[in-house]
From TrEMBL:
<dbReference type="InterPro" id="IPR000792">
    <property type="entry name" value="Tscrpt_reg_LuxR_C"/>
</dbReference>
<protein>
    <submittedName>
        <fullName>Putative HTH-type transcriptional regulator</fullName>
    </submittedName>
</protein>
<keyword id="KW-0804">Transcription</keyword>
<dbReference type="InterPro" id="IPR027417">
    <property type="entry name" value="P-loop_NTPase"/>
</dbReference>
<dbReference type="GO" id="GO:0003677">
    <property type="term" value="F:DNA binding"/>
</dbReference>
<dbReference type="InterPro" id="IPR036388">
    <property type="entry name" value="WH-like_DNA-bd_sf"/>
</dbReference>
<feature type="domain" description="HTH luxR-type">
    <location>
        <begin position="883"/>
        <end position="945"/>
    </location>
</feature>
<keyword id="KW-0805">Transcription regulation</keyword>
<dbReference type="InterPro" id="IPR041664">
    <property type="entry name" value="AAA_16"/>
</dbReference>
<keyword id="KW-0238">DNA-binding</keyword>
<dbReference type="InterPro" id="IPR016032">
    <property type="entry name" value="Sig_transdc_resp-reg_C-effctor"/>
</dbReference>
<dbReference type="Pfam" id="PF13191">
    <property type="entry name" value="AAA_16"/>
</dbReference>
<dbReference type="Pfam" id="PF00196">
    <property type="entry name" value="GerE"/>
</dbReference>
<dbReference type="GO" id="GO:0006355">
    <property type="term" value="P:regulation of DNA-templated transcription"/>
</dbReference>
């Protein structure tokens, strides 16, 4: 003990000067009420404005971005002090904790968890399961967790503003980071602030308000140096330090270690002023006693900051508590109710400066003292980092932790556990099985490169025939995803062929997987579309031949058979199979058992609805959103929201569709996905936004050409036809429709036929109109639904004369009145009114035109509304141009909230549908009531009715 005391005393003597440096940069924070940080007036003012906004009832988000040592942590300390009258919640990302799901989020929310009692039961259950406070055996709904966190913060803010400060976000576990970015994009009126600090942009930060923290200017750099070392540096030395540090405060303050070198005689080798910010801490730690360095290695490896756990780990290593003292004296670490490093870099360097043996010893000690019942996953992770070679017992522990991580919605954590389990598995066969499972997990989180490496590992070991087929299927999925991302047209088409080959291989091994593989091949071929026009027929022929051996029973079998029939024998002949498949899917969705259909094949169910002219898009799209959010499959949610937007278009709710598109766009940015363009183009077309349609369509056509994804190009031509028919530019609409009809795009070809008939008739190309009508008639009569018959009657009427035309127009209106297709009903009334104005007294034409005009105005369909207005004016009825959409002063989100409230949903239910807090719903409704001059939800229902 005496020897250790002498060593410790010597260590303290060596670091006394460096202690002053650390104290200057990290802890010498001025009183925010009197002064900001030196040289940081702009940044401190921005952070002060953020806190003032919270105090005034608004929510704010800010990302502090800058290199290591630039002063982000000092700014966060300043921010905490400035927000002294707020509830301040803090979390720090830790490298060794990156693979534990929800670890960072739990750290942040722990002080306000008592507010969970006020959450809805589903949100409370999801939150408790995510934080390991309870277990229900299934993965928690990730979006319910996000809403629960939003609800916690809003509840805490009811007492006083809440400020959440998250440092070193780049080391936060992925699930926590995604959840916090989700929350950040939904803060509006909760008096909650979220401030993230990180070194460089990461997935999810795009679009968030960012404050770049750069270096100090020369004047402030000199001032900092002179205040830290008054009178000790001559002008030449100061000039060199300022020049080489590039304004990095921590680099500036490393200079005391090199003062003697600057004063060395001429010809003597000089030490550089800044060998890197991390080198500063590395030297500081190296100057400590051996026992103290080991203490820091253990503390850096233990992210919870539990002093009792740390004490037990030291005891396990045979170290005394006094080993902490020199590190505390050096202001590297602080120990009271929690163990905290004074700067995140100090923790990072303390961990990285340890040798491999020291790191293993630290993790081994932590594993030994971690309760396997209370925290089995952290114990398993410490064990995994402690072993020096393969160890089946530890690998099995990790595999079990991966299962628990999946149940908590932590796919990224499961991937990390399984990857380490692969490395520790001694048996080649078992290693291959685990590598395949790990690769599948990494594909789910879009970690494609790691998934490919794991597949190579799996392939080297002995695999069964079924496992090899699964491996081939997964590799093809990776190639297809990679080709779509990179724009590799050749690989995209080749992947479709590979999907088919895998399906054939699976036929003799696993019939269910074979069906799924064929469905995957068909869906992939649909995306390729006109870029490889013969591809879909080849896939369909193979799938049809494979599926004729037995009668399909399950929804996925029915869907696969229906698609194969559609592409092999045509739309009309395949109509019975398609209707049977759609009914099975809808029934399965109502029973809550159709999660598969959206997770893997979002293109199939939506297209099937259009092919069968069904009215069920709203029902299926709403289930798609619930399914995607319930499974925590972030990558699928934007597509689900966009699909629901498409359903709202048919209902004539274009404001709601726009809001959903914006929501999908925000979520795509948050998860670093390219925002979807399919439904954005269609919504813009029905809104009559010609410039937006032109911009999106031009980009889509070029993208489809270069990337080999022909479907998006076909949809671009369809959107162009719709918007130009609305604008009355029929020749342009006809040209777009002709181009689109060169290929049989599954799903929207029937709509194209309808647009083509109208454009051709108006452009006086009746021969082409008759040809198109023949194809439309075949499809519509095979479907036989009111929607199909209404579209057919309208198109036939355009090519008819006299009483027959009028009868067909009225028949079309009657059919559409029996559907939820309000936008097509208005369109039928418009063309009927146009016909009446030319073939009957003008006064008779006014009524259908007036009803159509009013409907289009309320819907927000500007081009068709203007077309109806011009016809009314020509019919002798003066009518001024009106702003489109009901509640014309309402924003898209206010309109969407108003509609849901008018349907009788509670604030909590609206919040759940729109992924915002109930407090924000209430705030928006107050604005809606004021703008519309109403006082109750009953008034709202009447006003929007």
């Amino acid at each position: 003990m005496t020897g250790f005391a002498r060593t410790a005393a010597g260590g303290v003597g060596c670091i006394r000067r460096s202690r002053q440096v650390v104290n200057s940069i990290v802890t010498a924070i001025p009183d925010p009420s009197t002064a900001a940080l030196a040289g940081r007036d702009l940044e401190c003012r921005a952070l002060g404005d953020l806190v003032d906004a919270l105090r005034s009832g608004r929510s704010e988000v800010r990302v502090l971005q800058g290199e290591a040592g630039i002063g982000k942590t000092a700014l966060l300390r300043y921010l905490r002090e400035y927000a002294a009258n707020c509830t301040v919640l803090s979390a720090v990302g830790v490298e060794s904790d990156m693979d534990l799901a929800f670890a960072g989020l739990q750290q942040l929310c722990a002080p306000v968890l008592h507010h969970r009692a006020g959450l809805s039961q589903p949100q409370r259950d999801a939150l408790e399961q995510a934080f390991g406070l309870s277990s229900f055996g299934i993965a928690p709904d990730r979006f319910l967790v996000g809403l629960a966190v939003l609800g916690l913060l809003a509840a805490a803010a009811a007492d006083r503003p809440v400020l959440c400060v998250v440092d070193d976000v780049q080391w936060l576990d992925q699930v926590s980071a995604q959840t916090l970015f989700f929350v950040a994009r939904r803060l509006q009126a909760e008096s909650v602030g979220l401030v993230f600090a990180l070194r460089s942009p990461i997935d999810g930060t795009a679009g968030l308000p960012t404050l770049i923290v750069g270096g100090l200017d020369d004047r402030d750099a000199r001032s900092l140096l002179e205040s830290a070392f008054p009178g000790r540096l001559d002008a030449a030395v100061v000039d060199r330090i300022v020049a080489e540090s590039r304004g990095n405060p921590l680099a500036l303050l490393e200079s005391p270690k090199y003062v003697d070198a600057f004063d060395a005689p001429a010809g003597t080798q000089r030490v550089p002023v800044s060998a890197g910010v991390e080198q500063h801490y590395r030297q500081l730690i190296n100057d400590l006693p051996v026992e103290t360095r080991m203490f820091l290695h253990v503390a850096a490896a233990e992210p919870v900051g539990d002093p009792a756990l740390l004490t037990r780990a030291l005891a396990h290593l045979g170290l005394e508590i006094s080993a902490m003292a020199p590190a505390q004296d050096a202001e590297l670490i602080h120990v009271d109710t929690r163990v905290q490093f004074h700067h995140p870099l100090a923790r990072s360097v303390a961990y990285r400066s340890a040798s491999l043996e020291q790191r293993r010893a630290a993790h081994g000690a932590l594993a030994a003292v971690t309760d396997p019942l209370v925290d089995p996953d952290r114990r398993a992770w410490h064990r995994a980092l402690a072993v020096a070679s393969v160890d089946e017992d530890v690998a099995l522990d990790l595999e079990q932790s991966a299962d628990r991580a999946r149940q908590r919605g932590g796919t990224a954590s499961a991937a990390a556990f399984l990857t380490r389990a692969v490395e520790l598995t001694p048996d080649p066969a078992q290693r291959s099985v685990r590598a395949l499972a790990a690769a599948e997990a990494h594909r789910e989180i879009a970690s494609f490169d790691t998934a490919r490496h794991l597949l190579a590992t799996a392939e080297r070991g002995p695999l069964s025939g079924l496992q090899r087929a699964r491996l081939g299927q997964l590799r093809t999925r990776l190639e297809f995803a990679g080709a779509r991302a990179s724009g590799d047209a050749e690989t995209l088409a080749e992947a479709v062929t590979q999907f088919t080959a895998v399906a054939r291989q699976l036929e003799a091994l696993d019939a269910e997987l074979a069906v799924e593989a064929y469905l995957e091949a068909l869906c992939a071929a649909m995306y390729v579309g006109r870029s490889a026009p013969t591809l879909i027929a080849d896939v369909a022929a193979s799938a049809r031949a494979a599926l004729t051996t037995s009668e399909p029973r399950t929804p996925i079998e029915l869907l696969t058979r229906a698609l194969a029939e559609r592409f092999a024998i045509g739309a009309a002949e395949a109509m019975p199979a398609m209707r049977r498949a759609l009914e099975a899917i809808k029934e399965s969705a109502r029973a809550g058992g159709a999660g598969w259909f959206w997770r893997g094949f979002p293109i199939a169910h939506e297209s099937l609805i259009h092919e069968t002219w069904d009215d069920g898009w709203q029902e299926v799209a709403s289930y798609a959103v619930r399914s995607a959010t319930g499974s925590g499959a972030l990558a699928l949610v934007p597509a689900a929201l966009s699909s629901r937007a498409g359903a709202h278009v048919e209902l004539g709710e274009l404001a709601s569709a726009s809001s959903l598109i914006a929501e999908a766009n925000d979520l795509s940015i948050a998860i670093n996905y390219t925002p979807l363009k399919y439904h954005r183009m269609v919504v813009a077309a029905w809104q009559g936004d010609e410039s937006e349609v032109t911009r999106l369509a031009t980009a889509a056509i070029e993208s489809g050409r270069t990337r080999g994804e022909g479907r998006v190009a076909g949809l671009a031509h369809y959107a162009t036809a719709v918007v130009n028919n609305g604008l009355g530019r029929y020749a342009v609409a006809l040209g777009a429709a002709r181009t689109a009809l060169e290929y049989d795009d599954f799903g929207f070809r029937s709509g194209l036929l309808v647009e083509a008939v109208e454009a051709a008739v108006r452009a006086d190309d009746r021969v082409f109109a008759q040809q198109v009508l023949g194809h439309l008639q075949e499809r519509a009569r095979a479907a036989g639904t009111p929607r199909a018959l209404g579209a057919l009657a309208r198109s036939r009427a355009l090519l008819s004369d006299g009483r027959q035309a009028e009868a067909l127009y009225l028949e079309s209106i009657t059919h559409f009145e029996a559907t939820n297709q309000l936008i097509h009903l208005a369109r039928a009334r418009l063309v009927y009114g146009e016909w009446l104005r030319r073939n009957a007294p003008a006064t008779i034409a006014r009524e259908p035109l007036r009803i159509a005009h009013q409907a289009f105005v309320q819907m927000g369909s500007a081009a068709f509304a203007e077309r109806a207005r011009r016809e009314l004016q020509a019919a002798g009825q003066k009518i001024r141009k009106q702003p489109t959409s009901a509640g014309e002063e309402l924003s898209p989100q206010e309109h969407q909230i108003a509609e849901l409230a008018g349907q009788g949903l509670t604030n909590q239910e609206i919040a759940g549908q729109l992924f915002i807090s109930a407090h924000t719903v209430e705030w928006h409704l107050r604005k809606v009531f004021t703008k519309l001059g109403i006082r109750s939800r009953r008034d709202l229902r009447r006003r929007l009715g």
